[in-house]
Specification:
This protein is an alpha/beta fold and 401 residues long. The protein folds into three domains: 155 residues, Alpha-Beta Complex (Spore Coat Polysaccharide Biosynthesis Protein SpsA, Chain A), CATH 3.90.550; 151 residues, 3 Solenoid (UDP N-Acetylglucosamine Acyltransferase, domain 1); 34 residues, no CATH class. The protein contains six helices and 39 strands. Strand 2 and strand 3 form a beta hairpin. Helix 4 packs across helix 5.
């Protein structure tokens, strides 16, 4: 069957990039689509065939090969998913929750997404969500639905993080399916390369060896590496801890940094002691230790200084964000922010959850209490800072200068 891409004309802020160029595990979405189409046994073409049914998909739609197999086997129609747990986490900010720009068209029909809808069972597994602390319980509202067959659309910067997390989960699901259904020889084929690389039965060695590490990577022996995709020329410093993440060519993880389920673009850098969880870094981004970052997107060549902070958990109402159509509710309580391409965030800046910083912004913290000049007094005499000047005998004032 032939597959035809349709440009829906979508870009999203703050980046302004075409949605087909959004990074998914460090590849543009358009390339990820092409690989899934080929893996599903379909052929990507520029135009619709005149004499046979074909698959029509939007350039904003991420899907796995297994999702395509399940969908095209059912005949004509537009894909609808009705799994409530899956839609709770993937549906917010979509044009129509559960309805996707993915359709099987009849022979002779022009590319498009009009016509009947067809519900497809993606065969998702439902696992209970376990909050790490009771204070987080309100953000965990039901089971997590994941599987080898998944689909999502990118209509907002927050979808970049969600699609990358789903793509990481899909890779794990593919390995699980091979293990469960492949028989003895398939399991041996999975185990032997890991044992060869680990040369040990110690759990830490096995976790480090789950995926091959290129010889050009420079990884300190004290670093903890578990189930990661590591590309050429990556550097990981002493006592860094990197789990379930994708590290692009030439990126750097400094000493004591912690990464969990993160995607780090080529040439990006995670600073000393930084915590980066569930985040996506575009190529060339630099993220310092800050206050720890979760569910955030950092644009190309962006910079975040030490002590900067981005909130990610609301204890009040659900988080609202800016979209091309105005303010919208994410229906969730857990979301960081987005830093635009080449934007610079200074020390001490605090950014609320769901906030997007435009491209090329220079954002600095208030400086009213910043000491700019010192007039020392006698040795041992108290010196107070008022209006940016530290002088002996001055009386400290309450409130900002």
């Amino acid at each position: 069957m032939i597959a035809v891409r349709v440009d829906v004309g979508r870009s999203f802020g703050p980046f302004g990039d075409a949605v087909r160029d959004a990074p998914v595990l460090n590849s543009p979405l358009r390339d990820v689509q092409a690989r899934a189409i080929a893996a599903a046994g379909l052929r990507l073409a520029d135009g619709a065939p005149a004499n046979e049914p074909y698959l029509c998909f939007g350039d904003c739609t991420w899907f796995t090969a297994e999702a395509l197999r399940r969908f095209v086997a059912g005949g004509p129609g537009r894909l609808r998913v009705d799994d409530p747990d899956f839609l709770r986490d993937t549906g917010p900010l979509q044009p129509t929750r559960g309805l996707y720009f993915l359709a099987v068209r009849q022979a002779g029909q022009a590319p498009g997404f009009d016509g009947p809808e067809r519900v497809v069972d993606l065969g998702l597994r439902h696992s209970p969500a376990k909050p790490p602390h009771p204070a987080f319980a309100h953000a965990y509202r039901g089971d997590v639905a994941l599987g080898a067959a998944m689909v999502h659309e990118l209509w907002h910067w927050s979808h970049v993080t969600r699609v990358n997390l789903l793509a990481l989960a899909a890779q794990a699901e593919d390995a699980r399916v091979i293990w469960d259904t492949g028989g003895l020889m398939a399991r041996i084929g999975l185990i032997l390369p890991v044992l060869w690389r680990a040369k040990s039965l110690h759990p830490a060695a096995l976790a480090r060896a789950l995926l091959p590490i290129p010889k050009s990577a420079k990884i300190h022996p004290t670093a903890v590496i578990e189930a990661c995709v590591i590309e050429e020329d990556v550097e990981i410093g002493p006592f860094a801890c990197v789990r379930g993440s994708v590290l692009g060519r030439g990126c750097k993880v400094d000493a004591y940094a912690s990464l969990n389920l993160a995607v780090v673009g080529p040439g990006a850098q995670v600073g000393r002691g930084a915590m980066v969880n569930l985040c996506v870094l575009y190529a060339g981004a630099f993220v310092s230790s800050g206050g720890g970052f979760q569910m955030c997107v950092f644009g190309r060549d962006s910079f975040v200084a030490m002590t900067a902070m981005m909130l990610d958990l609301s204890f009040g109402r659900t988080i609202r964000v800016d979209t091309e159509d105005g303010r919208a509710d994410t229906d969730g309580y857990f979301l960081g922010g987005a830093i635009g391409h080449r934007a610079k965030i200074g020390a001490g800046v605090r950014i609320g959850y769901g906030v997007a910083i435009p491209n090329d912004t220079l954002l600095v913290a208030p400086s009213g209490d910043l000491v700019r000049r010192v007039e020392p007094g006698e040795p041992g005499e108290a010196v107070w800072a008022v209006d940016g000047v530290a002088r002996a005998g001055a009386i400290a004032r309450a409130g900002p200068a």
